[in-house]
Amino acid sequence: MSFSKEIYAEATAQMQRRRTEAERQCAIRREEIHLALPEVAQLEQEISHVGLKVSRMVLGAGEKAPALIQQLKEHNLRTQQRIASLLVQNGYPQDSLFPQYQCPACDDTGFNGPYRCACFNQLLTQIALEKLNESSSMSLRGFDDFSLSYYSDEIIPGMGVDARYLMGEVYSQCRKYAESFSLESPSLLFTGSTGLGKTHLSLAIAREAIQKGFGTLYVTAQNLLSEIEKEHFQRERTQTDTMGLASSCDLLVLDDLGAEFQSPFTQTMVYNLLNARILKKRPFIINTNLNLNEIEQRYTQRVVSRLLGACKVLRFYGKDIRHIQFSQQVKEGI
Ligand SMILES: [Zn+2]
Fold this sequence. Notes:
Blueprint: H1 5-36, H2 38-59, H3 65-89, E1 111-112, E2 115-116, H4 118-134, H5 163-179, E3 187-191, H6 198-211, E4 216-220, H7 221-233, H8 242-248, E5 251-257, H9 264-279, E6 284-288, H10 292-299, H11 301-310, E7 311-315, H12 321-331
Parallel strand pairs: 3-6, 3-7, 4-5, 5-6
Antiparallel strand pairs: 1-2
Helix pairs in contact: 1-2, 1-4, 2-3, 5-6, 7-9, 8-9, 9-11, 10-11
The structure holds zinc ion (ZN).
Residues 103, 105-106, 117, 119-120 line the site of zinc ion.
């Protein structure tokens, strides 16, 4: 996947900081160990002195050089074993004198030979997702500040229950979903009119997924599709691949599907995006004010059948919370 120069530079700087920090911690540990165990300090010094001495000898040794090098290796190995056993006897891990890098596969360099290490790819993805989330114009929300008091307790004609009860069920299903979220979780389709809390609950799920370390993208359909369109028509090698990120991140929250500018391009992209996530078995949450007939009219039957095949549908009930909040504020003279 490609990333912008800016993201690449930030990830490289973070890798360098990881490496520097591991080396700094190692230097502090070495100093402490040398104070507590002077013999370790002597043995380390011996290794470097012997090294210097033998390199000088090797220069003039001619054909005896390989044997001298072998001797040096064996001597160093014995000294290192002695250091390791001294460390262990005194309660230190035997690798205390080596930097403890976060990624043992690449020693926090970010590369295995010419290839990007998995840790570096993960960091690039994480930074790219954070940047997209920052520009998404939405802020993460919590379950605790979701109030059922805005939903009416009047019985809905023909349903025998009230909106508060139904939304209580929706709320607890979302909470359970967030608590047990994994890559195997089903996708969710939130439907219902505007202002019923779809965005709030999906952002509360996104927040918990991020806290658990899942790479999560939350974005409005309008913002995501216009970004994908921009990248598609001005494609350069060094641009971030937003479609790739949206297709493969651990969780995608796509808000307000149907409110974006409609064109054959966006219709195709919506299908491609959903299809890619379904094939990769990556969960997503879609909020929409459209009902299934309207989704079909805008995005075709194949989008509806993909959605219904992959998603658990949660219907939101009630009256627009923002109107209720506004009326309350007017009453209270705020
Ligand atoms: Zn690595």
